[in-house]
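User: My collaborator sent over this chain with a note saying "see what the structure looks like." That's all I know about it. Can you take a look?
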Amino acid sequence: MTGRDPHYLHERRPLEALVSPPVDGASALAWHPRREELVVATRGGMLWSVDPVMGTRHLAEDLPEAGALAIHPDGQQVAILGRGAALEVRALPSGELLHSLDLALLSNLWVGWWRGGLAVAGQGIERQEVIVLDHRFRRRASGELPAGAVVGVDEQNELIVGRVSSQGPEILPLGKGKLHRVEPTGHRLRFGPGGRLIGVAEGGVTVWTVGAPALTVRSFGVSAAALSPTGSHLAIGTREGGVALASLEGASLDRAHPGRTGGHDQAVRSLQFSHRGRWLASVAERIWLWSW
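Assistant: Without extra context I'll predict from the sequence alone. Here is the result:
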């Protein structure tokens, strides 16, 4: 594993905060796959569309409190997974409800579109589980996830499952083989672009890529992280509200360290790069859109 200490740059800023849309209480968000537009669900049950240039539009209301959100690759549907409530599929841009499925997943929620339909994962009342749906949103399979395991979608739009232990990362096609019975590390894991695993821990963020050494960006107080579409940059959010950008290419590490006025007043809960890589969204109580 390769480790890097962050170098703070105060004279130039790779990040520039440009827009704070008038959307409060964001609980889940995702960038549209075909245009620079952010879709946001709030704790109050509202669904919004945010265009950094054209502004903010209201799409729908009376949604369950969202814990995860994903937009179909064709950009015409959005899946919204509620906390202990329903999974809803709505049309874009109208917000019309197309399908609803009652679920009882409470935390650590994930939803994603795959080649065969839709999949969700999260902690239920008694276990951590994954549910796979087909194109018509019928249950195709379900099962328990091992401790520390996460589900994602690879570059071929197939479902994958991954986990990290002291022996390193392990990534398999979902339902084809079993993860080894070993103790997972304490990282909070998510899959990033290209099937890479991103792990947040107290001492920083680690990125695992199959066939390459793991790379750790050392930083204390990390609360959220995201990988850019090409894997060249890592966004970091802190419990103090800071937002930073680290380059993962070359021998040195560049990292922006915004001042108090450039970040949030509360802990950063989520970070999302747009698919074209032009924008970065950070979420605390409010949303900031950063150009980089």
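A starting point for your reply to your collaborator: The chain has one domain: 2-291.
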